[in-house]
Amino acid sequence: MALPVTDNLAQTEPAEATLPFWARSHFRMRRSALALYIPLGALILLVVACFFGPWILHLPPASFANIANSNLPLGSPGHLLGTDQLGNDMLSRTLVGGRVSMVVGFGATLVGFVIGTSIGVVAGYFGGAVETVLMRILDMVLAFPSLILAMTLVVFLGPSERNEIIAISFFAIPNYARLSRAATLKIREREYVLVGRVIGAGPRHIMIRHVFSNVLPSLLTIVPLTVAVAMIIEATLSFLGLGVRPPTPSWGNMIAQGQATMSIAPQDIIIPAVGLFLTVLFLNLTAEQWRLRISQ
Amino acid sequence: MLGVSLIVFSLLSLLPGSAALAILGPGATNAQVAHLSQQLGLNQPFVERYLIWVGHAITGNLGTSLLTNQPVIAEIEQRLPVSFEIMVISYILSLGTAIPVAILAARRPRGIADSINRLFSTVALSVPGFVTALLLILVFSVKLGLLPTEGFVPLAHGLVPNVKSLILPSASVSVGLFANYSRILRSDMIDQLRNEDYVLTARAKGIGQWRILFLHVAKNSLFPLITVVGTNFGYLIGGVVVVENVFGLPGMGQLMQYSILNRDYTVVQGEVILIAVAVILMNLVTDLAYIFLDPRVRYGATGN
User: Fold this and answer.
1) Looking at the predicted complex, does its ipTM rise above 0.95?
2) Distance (Å) from the C-alpha of residue A33 to the closest C-alpha of chain B?
3) Do B260 and A262 touch (CB under 8 A)?
């Protein structure tokens, strides 16, 4: 492999003055802080809006409304985003529907993180047969595309929010296990682990206090990405009728419901789609900027 | 692969709700259910059923559908061409756009082409496939009336109507793939331009930037691209399953959803196992492609 040639770098990096204004360094410096906090702030705002919005704004309930008010257009009095074909308030439904996506996205990530990291740390710390068996089992799970795996599991478990969390967490387990195993292999050789062993600490203590706490930071940066993927899988399951069932709203089943009246009321699919898009986008941006910060 | 088959089988045998009940409908008596379960062999012990199933599966017999009584393999064969065609068109669309765009973007990092591509792919990666599909239907079918909303026209009815019925589904799958491909290719090309000696040599010889990009760097950057194409294969299958349901195309994905909702678990089993095998084979092909294309991998074990 070639060594990085510094002269070469200067050649391919365009000169400062030729860069468009948004790429120049003085702008970039200020941008790097903003680039992390803007999506993070927006994300927090979305979460607060979904969980407390309907309550703060005194919105009508998300389901079982009067059907006489069906298909009201945007900006109707009392229904800012109109109503769907059953007369439910769209703003209220969209906010409440977001809760399902967020709870499942975060819950599945948490479950996947805890199980995956435990497997990875144990496999990496003990090595040998334990490692081989654990990693082989995970290789098998990896042979299934994440969506197909979640579809099959959720049918096996039955459609509910809790079962969606379990089904979707499976895709995250191998990822966290592999990353934490790789990190553990490095940390295992450090002096403080050796010292821990010398003073007579048990493997459980060393794994939790010394290995896990040092593996954690590098794993946390991919958490927002996992949440984003989990939310997309959740929405897809709901859309296919395999997730949360109406009348409980979720972004996925709202879009599925809106598909029938798409040509006359496209806002019924666009509004929940925008909610999902913004949440996933801000998660992705936060993850990207966070990773950039750490690597600097 | 045996382990994979065991997972699939045990998972689906434990499905709540009996298949016999699903076939007979809710009005069936207990005696009828028991009789049919007996007939279908659902009462035998788990291990026995698994071994029989694996034995048959190796010879290409995946059992018969509990709903239609057709062999599972025949059901799948009937649906496979549609899904396969969507995959091929998606690959053509996504690679055909990602490669030129990545070259343009890598030529001037943080330039206009690069910024637009980065913005587009960030957005594309945040939109689920079914939403892209619905938006495309909204624009091209509902507003512009150019393409059909749903339904499939077989190849026998002419190439143009056939491709027309599949172009929107394929495009919706391609958007996500494009974003992945163009990102990987771009960053690897920029990396090569900066760090590789052969680029320096080519520059010293006075070869122009475009020529270096197309003939030297793009060729070498195909390796990470091959890896991503291989690892994204499962993502592609997931995408196809979803868009088939949006567009009402009679492919594997529609069969899958239909069988899941009707608890036709021999079909689900057969299909999931085929998908897993396809993913494993794809990974193998990716590894082989490396050995075939890159002599360093071939001689890596003994060289140096």
Assistant:
1) no
2) 19
3) no
